[in-house]
Amino acid sequence: MDSVFITGLGDIGEHILELLVRVPNVPKIYVGDIKKEESLRKIYSARSGAIHQGFYPKIEFIHLDVNDVERTAGIIQEINPEVIVSSMTLKTWWALEAELPPEVFRRLDKAGFGPWLPWHLTLVYKLMQAVKKSGVEAHVINASFPDAVNVILGKVGLAPAIGLGNCDLFVPELRRIVADKFNVSVKSVSVYLVGHHYLAHALNAYQSTMGCPYYLKIMIDDKDVTKQFNLEKLLVEANKYMPKGVNDHFIVAASGVKNLLAILYDTKELTYSPGPQGLPGGYPVRLSRKGAEVYLPEDITFEDAVRINEEAQKLDGIEEIKDDGTVVLTEKAVTIMEELMGYKYKELKLSECEEKARELLFAYKQLVEKYKRH
């Protein structure tokens, strides 16, 4: 069977590995990371735990530095994986809330996630260049802000196949709530959701959609039951007990493994996922060996679905993503970043993302040090 390549064995990557080794008859798993000793310990844990439960995974560690695009391309060509799952980033998304005083984090949060794109784009950009150089037609699942990163890379012909997480975190609970109300199996409930990362953030952080546009349709088998719910209240209820910060990473990883298995085993499963086909935000999709196919109900057009997510991304600090992949931030985002961090950029070009990432890391470090001294 075809192999799987996990690149980046941080917190989410480790959870993905732990879940994947407990899938019956899973193919060989390659794990690539720059930190050898730490990664080997995580592999040891995953493999030992799986064997305790009667699973016998084949795992091989590869020392991987995606900054070396040529060598990374050679590795991908050699192992020829069917699916690559990338959870690489220069700075984890939850660091801000963990390392800054609450009032400072709340002010920065108003800028949205867009200004932090250089951290999450740089390594995935290099990985996708390596995939293209390798000539291997692997399906890449990107965990790093796929609602925007996949769009940017798609503009230059480097789009990952799909993302994971974000609004997908609360879709299972939506289905569970509906199933309980109608006393049916969760399997009978289908959710058609068009929603951006900001919607998931708003519901988790503020218990409100915060005016974020979305589309939601709920079916029980062939029956449309959408009108039987106050959708705003339903979304809030589905997020009421959502773990916050790093504590949601297990669910994030489960979302990724779900997508991975659907592609690997050609299930054509109907699900929700962000960033399919280089599109902004997330959509209902069918996943198979062909990749991700957007699958919308008849009462919403493809153009309207894209428009919903383009409007929502403005709340996340992104005014526009141009045809060459250049990101234009909102004035609000630019102002907040300049006032709090002395860091200003209005536009982010792909060719500048690594340089901007270094500048952003330096400005952020200065901000953290400032509040440590107080």
Automatic annotation (TrEMBL):
This is Saccharopine dehydrogenase NADP binding domain-containing protein. The lineage of its organism: Archaea, Methanobacteriati, Methanobacteriota, Thermococci, Thermococcales. GO terms for molecular function: oxidoreductase activity, acting on the CH-OH group of donors, NAD or NADP as acceptor. SUPFAM superfamilies: LDH C-terminal domain-like, NAD(P)-binding Rossmann-fold domains.
